[in-house]
TrEMBL record:
Taxon lineage: Bacteria, Bacillati, Actinomycetota, Actinomycetes, Geodermatophilales
Biological process per Gene Ontology, one example term: polysaccharide biosynthetic process
InterPro entries xrefs: DegT/StrS_aminotransferase, PyrdxlP-dep_Trfase, PyrdxlP-dep_Trfase_major, PyrdxlP-dep_Trfase_small
SUPFAM superfamilies tied to this protein: PLP-dependent transferases (SSF53383)
Keyword tags: Pyridoxal phosphate
Modification type N6-(pyridoxal phosphate)lysine: residues: K180
Domain of life: Bacteria
Pfam families for this protein: DegT_DnrJ_EryC1 (PF01041)
Protein name according to UniProt: dTDP-4-amino-4,6-dideoxygalactose transaminase
Family the entry assigns: Belongs to the DegT/DnrJ/EryC1 family.
Active site: K180 (proton acceptor)
Record flagged with keyword Lyase: no
Cofactors named for this entry: pyridoxal 5'-phosphate
Length: 375
């Protein structure tokens, strides 16, 4: 079975993990600080807080933004449910705005129409690795007095209009799950252009503990003293996984380049298949492709999916619209609210894309797709 996605781990990664395991720290230690510093090299120098998953990164970012009851978080439905669920768990009302038909990213016009006086955060999702129009969304957020958050789980390594992901929003969340553009097995990070938001995120991922005597309410309790001023959680990413992350970051440029080659090869091989729409490629972005999201007529998508699976090709659909999940349906959300995103879902099929995919693998996938539509 050719998988839909797979991590790329080599001997340098194994050696980095082995060194961390045999060192003095398994949990928080020097590898955490090193990984966070290494991440800043990809985010325009903006600092990162490493956390246990991309979902934890979203939860931490929303908490840093002060999201809570009575507030609204505006986002795209064409995303994994965690983008919305983490805001809902903090008590906010999630408002879904439709996507751009060409890119699958949050449509600034739809976002502007959905803003209210309760909008606290506008959350864009870098679908497949491609950012939305972040300048337009910045204007939407600024007019609303809201923060701009970029869910960049797919897009570390992407550069948009000369600026790297991590420098485009007030808060940016990253994911390092096994199938992402680099991996720490499980893990994520929050990046911020605001020192205040960064400090809140760093505190939240460590229970909200205050150890600085100058900031404590009762600093004379004793040298062991620590305080919690605002509740947080244990979202600390351990040293051993951060060691893997730094090793992976050293190869990220190569990962991005190979993903671009594979994506371009798909484009060329499928260009004359009338039933297949290949991904949009805006001129203003150098995209670190996480997915290859092809679109086909909705009435044949399932048959093509099953045809490829039967031939040993791992394909996927990204994503079930977030507001379709029963948890949101039970809150009153209804199908039909975001017709562009919903039609995108009906047509989308993600073909295999990972660094170890060979040109022959790509050609085999494309031959099977072409054969399906020629039959």
């Amino acid at each position: 079975m050719l998988p839909y996605a797979r991590q790329s781990v080599d001997e340098s990664d194994v050696a980095a993990v082995a060194a961390a395991v045999s060192g003095d720290y398994l949990s928080t230690g020097p590898a955490v600080a090193r990984f966070e510093a290494d991440l800043a090299g990809w985010t325009g120098g903006h600092p990162a807080v490493a956390v246990t998953s991309g979902t934890a990164a979203l939860h931490t970012a929303y908490a840093a933004a002060g999201v809570g009851p009575g507030q609204e978080v505006l986002t795209s439905p064409l995303t994994f449910v965690a983008t919305a669920a983490t805001a809902a768990l903090l008590g906010a009302r999630v408002v879904f705005a439709d996507v751009d038909e060409r890119t699958g990213c949050l449509d600034p016009a739809a976002a502007a129409a959905a803003v209210t006086d309760r909008t606290t955060v506008v959350t864009s999702v870098d679908y497949a690795g491609l950012p939305a129009d972040m300048d337009a969304l910045r204007a939407v957020a600024d007019r609303a007095g809201a923060l701009l958050l970029e869910d960049a789980a797919h897009s570390i390594g992407t550069v948009w209009r000369g600026r790297p992901v991590g420098s485009l929003a007030d808060l940016t969340t990253l994911s390092f799950f096994a199938t992402k553009n680099l991996t720490t097995a499980e893990g994520g990070a929050v990046v911020s252009t605001s020192p205040e938001l960064f400090a809140r995120a760093a505190s939240f991922r460590n229970h909200g503990l205050v150890r600085d005597r100058g900031e404590q309410r009762w600093p004379d309790e004793g040298p062991w003293h620590q305080e919690v001023h605002a509740f947080g959680l244990n979202y600390r990413l351990p040293d051993v996984l951060c060691a893997l992350g730094s090793s992976q970051l050293a190869r990220l440029a190569g990962f991005v380049a190979r993903r671009a080659e594979i994506s371009a090869r798909y484009d060329a091989a499928l260009a004359d298949v009338a039933e297949v729409r290949t991904p949009a490629r805006p001129d203003d972005a150098q995209v670190a492709w996480h997915l290859y999201p092809a679109r086909v007529p909705a009435e044949v998508r399932r048959a093509l999916f099953e045809h490829l699976r039967a031939a040993g090709i791992g394909v996927q659909v990204n994503y079930i619209p977030a507001h379709w999940h029963p948890a949101f349906a039970d809150l009153g959300y209804r199908r039909g609210e975001c017709p562009v995103a919903e039609q995108w879902y009906r047509e989308e099929i993600s073909l295999p894309l990972f660094v170890g995919l060979t040109d022959d693998d790509v050609d085999r996938v494309c031959e099977l797709v072409r054969g399906f539509f020629a039959a």
